[in-house]
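Q: Structure for this?
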Amino acid sequence: MSSIPHDRAAAGHGTHDDHAHHPTGLMRWVTTTNHKDIGTMYLWFSFTMFMVGGVMALTIRAELFQPGLQVVHPEFFNQMTTLHGLIMVFGAIMPAAVGFANWMIPLLIGAPDMAFARMNNWSFWLLPPAAILLVTSLFVPGGAASAGWTLYPPLTIQQGMGMDLAIFAVHIMGASSIMGSINIITTILNMRAPGMTLMKMPLFCWTWLITAYLLIAVMPVLAGAVTMLLTDRHFGTSFFNAAGGGDPVLFQHIFWFFGHPEVYIIILPAFGIVSQIIPTFARKPLFGYASMVYATAGIAILSFIVWAHHMFTVGMPVAGVLFFMYATMLIAVPTGVKIFNWLATMWRGAMTFEAPMMFAVGFLFLFTMGGFTGLVLAIAPIDMQLHDTYYVVAHFHYVMVAGSLFAFFGGVYYWLPKWTGTMYDERIAQIHFWTSLVFFNVAFFPQHFLGLAGMPRRIPDYAQQFADWNMVSSIGAFGFGLSQLLVLYAVVKCIRGDGAKAPAKPWEGGDTLEWTVPSPAPYHTFETPPVVR
Amino acid sequence: MPPAESPSADDTADYAVIAQSRAASVPRRQRWIAFALVAAASLAVGAVLAAHGAWPVLPYSVLEVALVAAAFALVERRARTWERLTVQGDRVIVERSAGGRCDRREFNRWWLRVDLEAAGRSREPRLTLRFAGEAMDFGGALPPGRRAEVARTLRRLTAPR
């Protein structure tokens, strides 16, 4: 008879912190296959690119501080707008979302790591070379790509070597995203803890599962689009070159068939983070969990049939315009379901307003505003007036910055105690929130007025009538940029252990699996699968 | 021979360890339905764009779907791969199931040597069973810390009385 107990497979301690068995030093980061290490690298990479893209944004706003040309040449200004867009979308926001996924999905579903740990390492290490290509393209003859982040031909076909580097960088980042998505799908589908059915998963996992599906559906489209640009540039094809019988509008269809789902790829993980934060600080379960899942899926499906609302002015048949207009408006329904569910979760909750909750509420308020201006732009006759004006710039910054970025900041403060084992400095975090909120609105709200008054986007100079609001907007942008140093300070403080020690569950209302492991989360977690009831 | 999936420990054994990757939270059918959804979406998009002249999208879709298929197949294989080590009486029994094939080896408990190669800079510790000039790795699916723990227990159980 057995006097020694049997033990199972993944048996051991649920939170095995086996420091003797993980490498240290620089090679730890180069060769790591640990989801926490890789998540950390994604988040630092993302923050670095956020700063690089931010400096480019401030260059743009410095030039636009006053009418006339003062700071940079118009050609360089165009390079800044292009690289700012590409870097923020592909280098900052998407990697941040993948960083959260890497850190949190295994912890939220009770898995020991991602399904393909080595591929996870490769998908991260593809990013720095891509970023280097993008940034160093500024120094090649002719400068960086300057056709806008949408890379529309024929301008793209006429540009210098910087465009080739940008195309190559986009290819690499796309490959990284596909590998990341495959990992996320296989992890969520196959590695959940016993008892954790799909409909018991934390919403963050659901939003990422759907995001990964979106990525897999649209990334080949982007890859194909930039390949066609490359062959048009160098190999004599004429996919988009009208002189050779091609059609530049075809590129716009293809690009936006990728680009609109891309918007949701950026925002859905943010929805997931907010859906974790609000119930925790309202101390209530998420209202309408199932409807949140279906709404997320609904948004993802609808994102495939609205792409042409970005190109109402190219001359589509009226039936097409009407279809895309109504389809776009339809997205307000599942999005509204989510907004109302978050509000209902807060309703009569025992709420407290620590920094994560402040960012979540800020997200809710500002993202809803961005959603409303999106509805305005969905109306074709209005869009034809506002197309390529600063109204559009204001709209998508409300969605991308006040939407995704605010949710990510909320996520950072929410999980920082788990990541570092130290409570963040609440005072710094609150100052970060309020300065971000105020300066963001100072920077971007006036851009609605500028757009409505007819100021075009992507111009280094403008008519005198736009001077006042541009000055206000630039002041706001500099304030917003400087405010972001506060999050860096707060994070570094936590990493240095300068603060109160974080308990395993620092938030009273947290009821997901990550709060069952100690803070900081041990290097190896859930080697024994937890049982979820 | 135990079934290919979900091995269980023998209650009469002195000690038993089962090493299996965590890759089985969906049944096989659901796993492949999930794959079909991904593949259908990606290939349909590629095909429609190819029909409109943007054919370079399609090879990327095919390549990507092939990658996803490989990943799903690998997960499938992992779900059916396990190792079980049982110490029972004078015997140490190691059973393995990989890719639907099972094999079983028996060793003399008192002649078995258990080696644990220490972890390197970027290498996990390796648990090797040695017997009569043969060597056999065990516990690849166990976390590194567990491997060391299993090695310690086995050394104790196989030490000459």
